[in-house]
Amino acid sequence: MKTSKKLFLFILTVSSFTFSCKKDDPNGGFSEEINNIVPAEVISTIRKQGMTIYEGKTPPQIEGIYLFSDNVLSGSTIEDDEIGEIYADYRYQFYEQDQTTLAVKTSFRGYNSKGQLLSEGIGKGSFISGNKNVFSVFSEEHTTSSTGATSVILTIYSGEYTDTGIKNFQYAFYMKDKNDPNNDLIDIGSTRVFKDGDGLSEPMSNLRVSFEEGLKRNSAQTVMKENSGRY
Q: Does the residue 231 lie in any domain?
């Protein structure tokens, strides 16, 4: 099995960050907290892979749960990745968003074509940027896999908030560091970018897939990777 396609199931994701007392630029750009999470060179690398990243300090209120499907690989620095491949669906939750500090919490679950849980995580300490209806969310995630591998991963989510869901939703991640004795994870410095295949991530009532949804998904014989696509 190719390293970049290996399944990565992790138990819990916890974001960490460093605060700065420097006053934010009121005219735009990123907050100091975001600059401390994701270095400018990483943002540049991810943008070169096709990710749209929004700056600004007046983002929309995006709290809610959204379905990310089809989960299409749209950019990668990994040599044997195939652009256009479909990976597991995700449900992303944004909550406890603070428009003053620009802090926001995140959680997610990924499911295979049978509606079975592949991966899940909780982020604490993420920050949001953007203006009007467009936004980006930044997080540093410390993860532990089911095989015991640990990693530090920088994650970015972007999109446009609308009354019917998030339009042109994307997410990307960058492998910052890892302790991976079995070489289960992608290499340090690698990035992947994904987009919602139909261009709209609809709001959902919860993070779980119901029994009926699992049956429907299985009967449709959706072609997707049986791994999460993450890490």
A: no
